Amino acid sequence: MLRSFLLLVSPLLMSFCDGVCFMCPEICRCSQKSITCNSATESLKSRTHSRLVLNYISLKIISTHSFDGLKGVKRIEIAQSTSVETIEKEAFNNLLNVSDISIQNTRSLVHIHKWAFNHLPNLKYLSISNTGIGVFPDLTSIFSLESDFILEICDNLNLRSIPTNAFIGMTSEITTMQVSHNWIQGCNLHGSGILRIIIDISIIIEYIH
User: Fold this and answer.
1) What is the DSSP string of 44-97?
2) Sequence spans of domains, the chain
């Protein structure tokens, strides 16, 4: 009887448990292989959600168009995952009203593909912190129109450098970049549009042009 009940339980509660469980947001569709949060899944619910919280994701890959075309969502938070290794191209795509994206405490995350963050015109805050990335993520297709854009890259101990032209296309407005607790040994920000750099207890910054 109990087993039958569990099989019928809403897909909102995923069986991704290892001490803690991942709960699929109401406006998304989740399986053991994918997460889909788009305009189609969002429209199935009468109640709007301005915030998506995805903790303890057990998937290895956040795939292309996982977050695509959402209209009511303004904030997306991904945290506390020990499984996520890769974020694919256009995983965050065409999110016209999203202002904040944070990816934190995902130490298994090592690959963020080019154009993973694509066409996010209202994005004003992006945090990629406490991950395992060793290559600075490509942010050139964000195309934010917001002023005072804030980029937070913190506690990524495998990150060694920031490449030339890393920020072209990210935003056309003023950008503040907060860099702390990384092993960044060099970066070239010439022509990048970065106006302010906040370096707070960074382990080593050898040169900034």
Assistant:
1) T-SS--SEEEEES---SEE-TTSEES-SS--EEEEE--SS--EE-TTSEE--TT
2) 10-199
Q: Considering Cα of 58, then 64, then 68, then 73, what sign does the dihedral take?
A: positive
The whole-angstrom separation of Cα 181 and Cα 103 is 16
CA dist 54 and 89 (Å) reads: 19
Residues in the chain: 209
Backbone angles phi, psi at 4, to 5 degrees: -65, -40
pTM tops 0.85? no
Q: Which of 1-5, 42-46, 75-79, 85-89 has the lowest mean pLDDT?
A: 1-5
CB-based contact 91:116 (threshold 8 Å): yes
Sequence-ordered strand ranges (E) for the chain: 29-30, 35-38, 51-55, 61-62, 67-68, 75-79, 86-87, 92-93, 100-106, 111-112, 117-118, 125-131, 149-154, 161-162, 175-180, 186-187, 194-199
Do residues 30 and 59 make contact, with C-beta atoms less than 8 angstroms apart? Answer: no
CATH topology assigned to domain 10-199: 3.80.10
At 60-113, the pLDDT tens digits run 999 999 999 999 999 999 999 999 999 999 999 999 999 999 999 999 999 999
Contact 95/71 with Cβ under 8 angstroms? no
50 pLDDT band (50/70/90 cuts)? Answer: very high
The residue whose two tokens read 């297709």 is 141
For residue 186, the model assigns a pLDDT of 58
